[in-house]
Design goal:
- The chain is α/β, with parallel strands linked by helices.
- The protein has two domains: 181 residues, no CATH class; 177 residues, 3-Layer(aba) Sandwich (Rossmann fold).
- It is 44% helix and 11% strand.
- It contains 14 helices and ten strands.
- It has a six-stranded parallel beta sheet with strand order 7-6-5-8-9-10, sandwiched between helices. It has a four-stranded parallel beta sheet with strand order 1-2-3-4, with helices on both faces.
- Helix 8 links the parallel strand 6 and strand 7.
- It is globular.
- It starts with 6 loop residues before the first helix and ends with a helix.
Length: 367
């Protein structure tokens, strides 16, 4: 069950893959759909949509007698589902959003950003008081969490129902057949929204240390976002503006070759439940440098990239660790080659088929 604006894409895929799948489409009235464009209105809209789609599911279940129900979107542990009222095994997730920015990194962002993080933390803390979410958790047979951080946010009485399962996967055809080709230029790559919590400011500050050992280092940044000007000012203050190339966001099929033209992918996100670009980079045989936080910290292993430990480390020490890691990747070709091969192997473990198999196997094993 989904919204009717997804119909064309779904029906095209069903025809292309010759799949026998029945899809039910449901939309709120036009006056209600307009709410989601108002500040904060998307959440009230989503709640009403969940009520309506539950009623549709109840009617379908009375005729079809389904064995189980799986709720996927919004992939947020703060947004409820009423599918548990159907009285059949209910799988909720994978859901994320419980990740939080470590306190030591907050002094390096703007005051509005600090306020936004505080509000986000408050929302996560108030989850235990949300009757809709307590019903969702209590009625679920299994709760799939994208990261351990989100699992830790689930109210304690329901944690025994939880498993950790990433919410993303890669198509088999997108995975490189071999490791990365030799790179002659020390170019690093970042792809993503230009937002403070993506941690790009940490890499920009680290570049100043990298250029001492790798004078020709460069960072290519592909993406758009509200913090572009702030990030540009940081590059200027750090004295690395000449090392950075800014490129507007592009469709995925236009940037795939960028992975192959870079020596490593940097993605130091401070709270990211997923990190699809990380998986795409690994699939292209590109080693990944990230923090040990959120989805990227779950996806990346020492065999396919470098995880910079945050923990109690200060922001300055994390920046220093990022600089050392980037220098190592730029100067040690054999190490980079091992990580490149490991990146392809890691992507092979994280296909959509593998993700579905792992999720439903865990669901079935729990009885």
């Amino acid at each position: 069950m989904t919204r009717s604006n997804n119909r064309a894409g779904i029906e095209s895929a069903l025809r292309a893959q010759n799949l026998d799948l029945n899809v039910a489409y449901y939309d709120l009235p036009g006056w209600a759909r307009a709410w989601k464009h108002l500040p904060g209105g998307i959440y009230f809209y989503y709640l009403l949509w969940q009520v309506g789609v539950y009623r549709l599911a109840k009617r379908l279940h009375s005729a079809e007698k389904f064995d189980c129900v799986h709720h996927v979107t919004f992939a947020s542990f703060r947004q409820p589902s009423f599918m548990g009222k159907l009285g059949i095994p209910f799988l909720f997730g994978p859901v994320g959003g419980g990740e939080t920015m470590p306190a030591q990194f907050r002094s390096g962002i703007s005051w509005p950003a600090r306020v936004a993080e505080a509000v986000r933390d408050l929302g996560n803390s108030l989850l235990v008081c949300d009757p809709f979410m307590r019903f969702t958790f209590s009625s679920a047979h299994t709760i799939a969490c994208t990261t351990g951080e989100t699992l830790a946010r689930i109210p304690r009485p329901f944690r025994l129902k939880c498993i950790v399962q990433p919410t993303i996967g890669i198509n088999q055809w997108e995975i490189a057949s071999a490791g990365q080709a030799p790179i002659l230029r020390p170019h690093f790559l970042f792809i993503g929204r230009l937002l403070y919590w993506k941690g790009l400011h940490l890499v920009l500050r680290a570049l100043a240390g990298v250029r001492q050992s790798v004078p020709h280092v460069q960072l290519k940044i592909i993406g758009d976002g509200s913090d572009r000007a702030w990030l540009s000012s940081i590059a200027q203050k750090a004295g690395v503006a000449d090392l950075v190339e800014w490129i507007q966001a592009k469709p995925q099929d236009e940037i795939r070759h960028e992975y192959r033209n870079s020596l490593a992918f940097v993605f130091p996100s401070l709270h990211d439940s997923g990190g699809m670009v990380v998986l795409e980079a690994l699939a292209a045989g590109l080693p990944v440098l990230c923090l040990d936080l959120g989805g990227p910290g779950t996806i990346v292993t020492p065999a396919c990239g470098i995880l910079v430990k945050s923990g109690e480390a200060s922001e300055a020490s994390v920046i220093e660790s990022l600089a050392k890691a980037m220098t190592l990747l730029a100067t040690d070709a054999s190490y980079r080659a091992r990580l490149s091969a490991g990146a392809v192997a890691r992507a092979q473990d994280m296909t959509w088929d593998a993700a579905a198999q792992a999720l439903y196997s865990s669901f079935a094993a729990r009885g």
